[in-house]
TrEMBL record:
Record lineage: Eukaryota, Metazoa, Chordata, Craniata, Vertebrata
Family the UniProt entry places it in: Belongs to the peptidase C19 family.
Composition bias, Gly residues: 474-487
SMART domains: DUSP
Chief location category: cytoplasm
Name listed for the protein in its UniProt record: Ubiquitin carboxyl-terminal hydrolase
Compartments it resides in: Cytoplasm; Nucleus
Catalytic activity as recorded in UniProt: Thiol-dependent hydrolysis of ester, thioester, amide, peptide and isopeptide bonds formed by the C-terminal Gly of ubiquitin (a 76-residue protein attached to proteins as an intracellular targeting signal)
Alphabetized GO MF terms: cysteine-type deubiquitinase activity
Record GO biological process: protein deubiquitination; proteolysis
The organism of origin for this protein: Oncorhynchus kisutch
Keywords (A to Z) from UniProt: Cytoplasm, Hydrolase, Nucleus, Protease, Thiol protease, Ubl conjugation pathway
Enzyme class: hydrolase
Span of domain DUSP: 1-81
Pfam family, one: UCH
Amino acid sequence: EICRRWYEQWKEYVETGDQNSSSFPGQIDNTELFEELDSYHLKERLVENEDFVLIPAEAWHKLLAWYGMVEVQPALERKVVDLPSLVKVEVYPVEIFLCLHSNMENVVTAQFSRADHIRKRNSVEEQDSYRGQPGVCGLTNLGNTCFMNSALQCLSNTPPLTEYFLRNAYLEELNFTNPLGMKGEIAEAYADVIKQMWSGRHYSVVPRIFKTKVGHFASQFLGYQQHDSQELLSFLLDGLHEDLNRVKNKEYIELRDAAGRPDQEVAEEAWRNHRRRNDSAIVDTFHGLFKSTLVCPECRKVSVTFDPFCYLSVPLPVSKDRVMEVFFVSLDPVAKPVQHRLVVPKAGKVFDLCSVLSEMTNIPANQMVVADVFNHRFYKLYHADESLSCILDRDDIFVYVKKQGSMEEEGDEVVLALYLRERSHYRDYGSGSSSYGTSLFGHPLLMTVPRGQCSRDALYHLFLQRLAGGAGASGGAGASGGAGASGGASVDASATGPTDSQQGAGHQQPCEEEEEERGECPPCLPQANRRQAKRKGCEARRRKLLFSIQAVNSNGTTERGMGEDGSAFSFSSQPYVAMDWDPDMKKKYYNENEAEKYVKHQSMEVPHQQTTVQLQECIELFTTVETLEEENPWYCPMCKKHQLATKKLDLWSLPEVLIIHLKRFSYTKYSREKLDIIVDFPLRLTGTNGEPPSRYDLIAVSNHYGGLRDGHYTSYARNKDNGQWYYFDDSKVTYAREEQIVTNAAYLLFYHRQDKIRQPTLPAPLDSSSPTQPANDVSSPKHDGMEGATPCVNMETD
């Protein structure tokens, strides 16, 4: 495994073909993948191609040889587990806690591959003899098939459908001649998976045949790309319906206009017409009725129709604003960074963020530079016209003031990205030479520097002044300078810089040992010329610099070339500079704890709560009046032309199993985003327009973690036999509690009606020429007792 950020920067560097490019990635760094740097445990729920990428071992060894790796970090080598009918990369090995029975306090953690837990150890019976709770069975990920596994687990825990397949009722209703069906193949493949999952004999099932059948009849699901679990569910329910349709010959039915008739009469007629062409266990279980009302804006003609539905796709309230937290870094060297909480347009640009911050700081927005800081370095410097959607909530955003005034010409200045690094000496025993490594620390800085002051001597003085409020003396009598306004000891910015010899060498000159021991080496005076020292005596002793200056890549991990004369820097394509500190100088004269401190703006005092909406709000939004778009007008029979009519949907009758699709993926002409707001859905809900009210229990939830491009699907489901909730993550199944179910990852909700538990479905007669009524028509308006013209669903939690 390799961190995706490093990998993407490496790709950018390779694609540019410029060895001096600032995108040079430096050493491989997987810090972002670890929960704790002490134990190097991986974070939970890392997503491939979003958090990390997998590369072959040969490619890894090449990259390691070319770039090296950050010190101490372990290589994230993962095995490809080769099991029967399964090849899988094991991202998370099994962790087992081990201890001796005689000393149970000394517990150690060991990791094992899933490939060597049964056959190699012979300590557990073979899976064929396994006996577990029916239905509590994982599904193997065949390669980005978590979307399919999540949908299957939800359907598997839908009692009426699963019982229908387990008692083989489907065998008498397979429709092999339906031109809209799949010749019964989808139904048979699905039945095979369900029977294996509910046999109680498997830890997990490999749905390879089912996956092949789905790809055969729906080419969009071919291969191993990530897909949408709702799209798979929609295809599967439609395919099962057509494979199990009891109507062999679909007759043509001419639809009649409502013509002022009562809604109840029109609804019953629409339902009968629907059942004359569509009569299956899927219709029995999942189909309900919408009431659609269209009103012509010109003649006020009202058209009422009733349409069947299989699931509700409800929108989520979309806020036009977004809350972001940023750190503002002023030009005042004594002032500490200030954390602000901003409300910015969700579809805005980076300049909009700067404009809002400008109102709080009185700094012009065009003097601000927005940066993403990660691991003491700049991960990205944003342009003013970039979209704010590029910035994630988890990013650490710093806003810097790039200049106080303006020079005569813009080209006379250069904005330097400044890193702080600490040297660590080590000896190369292969060559016998002594060298040093570096590690970043502190917050990086941005400084506007005149191009005429890019020599080492000039930059040293500029950097020293900038650090006056951030570098604090943590001890030592040689520190020149007193306490800063912010409480930290500042460095004397009036001191002179390095000598010409030091500029050329680019290194610090060591102090005399006895001066080091007495702590009498001021950090910022230059080493006096030896001849001048002899003339002036002991008053001008050799001094040691606070830091040396190096041009580096954008990661601050690799030193880059200097200018032609070796003493000045060329910044045509390399605006990154590092200050390298020796450990002893950093310890004496840089107070890292003080420099890391920041203050909170009053905007941070207002508590920020994650947006939460009620499920009822989403349903109300679904049933609000809307105006048709120009691309989809309605033909008014009175005006004899297409009109942009108003349209309103109402829930007229509810099915036995109600599926609610939360539309988290928002697509507009100008933007795309995933809505991560929490939808507070109840475990039990009630439809209040019937007598008695219809009662529903939550039985399953399909979850989506991640973003638009990549993600991972899991599911929660309640076992129909023991009532226990379980969490299904591909082949892994664990117990779950009800309070864990409501999260911002919930995507599909399955509710089962409890006030009317239907009897087993009886096979329909082979002669379907005449319309038939289902024996268990819980979806029919006349059986639902929904007499009102404007049914609604109110959510109540028991």
